[in-house]
Each structure stands twice: as C-alpha cells, then as structure tokens.
Amino acid sequence: MATVNVNGVRAAVKARSAANTGLLGWLSAAPADYVCLQEVRATEPETRAALAPALADGWTLVQAPAAQKGRSGVAILSRREPDAVRIGHGDPQFAESGRYIEADFGKLTLASLYLPSGEAQTERQVEKDQFLTTFGEYLKPLAHAKRDVLICGDWNIAHTELDIKNWKGNLKASGFLPHERAWIGEVFADGSGWTDVQRAFHPGEAGPYSWWSYRGQAFDNDAGWRIDYHVANKPLAARAVKAVTQRAEHYELRWSDHAPIVVEYAA
What we know:
There is one protein chain. This protein has 267 residues and is α+β, with helices and mostly antiparallel strands. It has a single domain, classed as Endonuclease/exonuclease/phosphatase (Deoxyribonuclease I, Chain A), CATH 3.60.10. Strand 7, helix 5 and strand 8 form a beta-alpha-beta unit. The longest helix has 20 residues. The radius of gyration is 17 Å and the shape is globular. The relative contact order is 0.15. Belongs to the DNA repair enzymes AP/ExoA family.
C-alpha cells in the first residue's frame, strides 16, 4: 500500500517526464497494489488523461475531485476494481471538497485523505477545525469495523516534536497547534482502535519526514514535517511488515514536495 500527495497530478506527471522519473515512472516501478493520491487538483477526465499510460498498464482509478477547480482532490489507484466506493465522511460542508474517498476491496476498506491545511487565526483554520470535529466522530466506529481498514494520506498535522524538525519555530503554525496535536493524539491513543503504522516502525526517532518546503534549503537540510500517515485499524496494523518513506536521493529528482510512504502488509 502506498500514499503520496502529488501536489497536482498533471505537474507530477510532467516533472522530469523525459527522464521517466516523474509520477508515471514511479508508478511503473512502485512495489504496491494500491496507491492513494492527494492534492490531485484535476477533474477526473484530466486525471485519466495524465495517467493514461498507467491506466493502460492495468491501474484502476477512482477519484473524488473538488468542486472548486484546481483545488484539493483525492484518488485511489488499484490493481483491481473496487467493490464499492464512497465519497466524503458525512459532513455536508465537505461533500464536494475532494478531501476523502474510501473504497472496498474484498475484506479491505482503503481511504485516501487530504485533511485541510488550515492557517492559524483565519477562516481556513475554522474550516480545518470543523473537519477535525466531524471526521473525528466518523473515525470512532470505523476503527472497529469487522474488516481491515486503512486511511492513507496527508493529515496535515505533525503529531509530536519527533514529527517536525523545527518544532520550536512552529508552535503557533497550523499543523502543529496544540489542539490539532491533541486531536491526532486521540486518534492514535491506546484504545482508539487506530495505529500510526510508520511510528510503530520508528519509535522514539525523529522523522522520517515526508514533506519539505520548496523554499530555502529545507530538503537538503532534511528540515521536514511528518504529516503523511498510514493509519490502520488494529487487525491490519498487526500485519504490517515493512514501512518505507521514499525520500528522493537529490532535490532535482523530486516530483512533489511530499515523499511516497509505502507499507507492506501480510495477507
């Protein structure tokens, strides 16, 4: 299973396409049967056109585009057709925001999430906090479904100081606000039914980060944030075998400001 915020699917495909190191090149070599995409920023026809070589190679696409053109958007690529697809988490405010899609594949429910980024002390933060409230309620029963459940995506919250390099300089920034960290702490708490899969493989370690600003030397200095998560319910989390954050070897090889997160789960 893999997840990546592509920062615009058409841009990610175009990036370094001549060298086959953009999104299409990554998909052709990705050791995954399912890939969750966030910040697609395209209509479904535009996404299908951009990913045409991958779809011809056997990938299946389901997508929840945002009503506002060029914004947000989530999708799931899979090597098999889903049995069912659902868009949104039940909050009408976000029904057409391109923030959440989930699909059933046999005994697995897989979701792609692009949680709002917010901006402290603005209406964008009010919107994010509304999403946290209703999405938090949606997560509670889902964790205890009698099936494997995995929510992959850009959660736009760094949980602890281990998840952000410059935590002291971001104490008042959206994505590291105390109430946001408390919210995701409840998601990951004992008894919640959910597991932060990457953290289980890296207890007590800084990172591994999954997002770096394009500004300055953030990537070269590994001054990143860990905001992209595999969040699995307990039965599936127990079968996680290996988790890898695929940080590009060099700045010029990046095709997104996020790195893919790939986790292998035993059948």
